[in-house]
Protein: Exodeoxyribonuclease III
Amino acid sequence: MLMKIASFNVNGVNGRLSALLRWLAEADPDVVCLQELKAAQEKFPIREINDAGYGAIWHGQKSWNGVAILARGTEPIETRRGLPGNPGDSHSRYIEAAVQGVLIGCLYLPNGNPAPGAKFDYKLDWFKRLTAYAAELLTLEVPVALVGDYNVMPTDLDVYKPERWRDDALFRPEVRQAFHALVAQGWTDAVRALHPDERIYTFWDYFRNAWGRNAGLRLDHVLLSPELAPRLIAAGVDREVRGWEKASDHAPVWVELG
Structure:
């Protein structure tokens, strides 16, 4: 059975709802992980999402963060809300659900700037918690996809001018090493697996004409467990969405599974 899973950092789900609904209609994904809802729990536009043909679960937070999982024609079965390992962490950055036999983890990893500093330490700690939990998921030996905005460019191919980003929290060696350590558990970076040598971006800043200059970053990733990776048949970025009216600074990234 074909299945299309996508990730989209919407950068404000209500302010950019028209673009989200247009993309849902055009791309027709089966499962969508949203990040940066920037909406309180009661402000999530569930009616409009339902009208578009999707069931949803979401973990909102006023003004900041927020994650959601949408499923076309069905209701996601929530399995976790919040990443384990720090009960005091109030950020809405992780939600998980079972959809069509696949366990979907939707995540929004911290930005971490300025680095070094407390925000960078929080990012590295969150990454450690994610890595520990991802190892637990692998022991289940079931199809799992960890989908979202990881706020890391894993390699030089994922950033338009690597030399300018060496000290940024998105590209510092500690962060790239954390991402590679996560993947090394047995996960497949789906986009890079199918496009090993291609310069691919999922984010273009609003400033300095980044979109017009194609000065982008690949921040959004889909990691597939060993049980799911053999089903991978296609992956890409709907980069044209970044050029729409009221666009997010991210474009949707997607994978197709056979």
The mean pLDDT is 98. Helices lie at 17-27, 46-51, 118-139, 173-184, 190-194, 210-213. The domain at 3-257 is CATH 3.60.10.10 (Deoxyribonuclease I; Chain A).
